[in-house]
Write a structure and sequence with these properties.
With 258 residues, the chain is α/β, with parallel strands linked by helices. Helices cover 49% and strands 16% of the residues. It starts with a helix and ends with a helix.
């Protein structure tokens, strides 16, 4: 059954890759006539639809909890910040947020055929964190996106965790929120690194857990809170992560045994 699910899921994934490839020339036309933002919103909706179908076919369940309903609306200037556990983390952010947002992604991903077309179509922002120039360009582009009224999705650790522990949060992501006076939505992710078995087989029956925290309004923060914003956001995510590990321990053990 798992083999059949994987085959059907990958057929669906390939179908959506093909759709984005066919639509890419349309994106270029929209960009020429300065209507790029409309196509990006359409692509985001299409991407979200494809993700929903793929997760359903793969039998990967997503359990979403939140502090309140307002935190999922993502209205206004907002920067979404999550812990970085697995390669699929951006996928799950797209899954839970209705409002289109631009995710900051590794530049190396833009070198992968077909995937690069999807990333460009949904307005992803490339960044090479080892390059000062690339980081500055990404920061500038992110500022432009926020001024356009769109959201930003970013992982402040800068890289995926190799041991499951949440790494230090970099100040750059916080500066982006502070410079644009944007609210921050912290997101805690659990089990996203277990979506695949041996890197390519979908872990059917897996439950992924996502918690969306309340908005942090940076405009009302005191100076010392702004200075330690990277610590405040990380602490929120880490504390919830520990609670989620305890709360869902039975589910996690069952999934690990599969």
């Amino acid at each position: 059954m798992r083999v059949l699910r994987n085959i059907v899921t990958y057929i669906n994934v390939l179908f959506f890759f093909l759709v984005f490839t066919v639509l890419f020339p349309v994106y270029l036309i929209f960009k020429i006539f300065k209507f790029e933002s409309y196509f990006v919103k359409f692509s985001f909706i299409l991407m979200r639809f494809g993700i929903n179908i793929s997760l359903w076919l793969a039998d990967v369940k997503v359990v979403v909890t939140r502090d309140n309903d307002a935190c999922l609306s993502g209205k206004g200037s907002v920067v979404i910040m999550g812990n970085h556990v697995g390669a699929m983390d951006p996928i799950f952010l797209i899954y839970i947020f209705m409002q289109p947002f631009a995710v900051v992604a590794k530049r190396s991903l833009f070198n992968i055929p077909f995937l690069n077309l999807i990333l460009i179509s949904i307005g992803a922002i490339p960044v090479n964190r080892s390059s000062i120039k690339s980081s500055a360009n990404a920061q500038r582009r992110a500022l432009e996106v926020i001024k356009e009224g769109r959201l930003i999705g970013i992982f402040p650790e800068g890289t995926r965790s190799r041991d499951g522990e949440v790494g230090k949060f970099k100040r750059g992501a916080m500066n982006l929120a502070l410079r644009t006076n944007s609210s921050i939505i912290p997101v805690t992710l659990l089990n996203t690194h277990k979506v695949f078995i041996k890197n390519f087989i979908f872990n059917s029956g897996l439950s992924v857990y996502v918690h969306v925290h309340s908005l942090i309004d940076v405009s009302i923060l005191k100076n010392d809170e702004k200075e330690n914003l990277h610590v405040i956001v990380r602490d929120k995510i880490v504390k919830k992560l520990e609670k989620m590990k305890m709360q869902y321990s039975i589910d996690r053990d069952l999934n690990e045994d599969k």
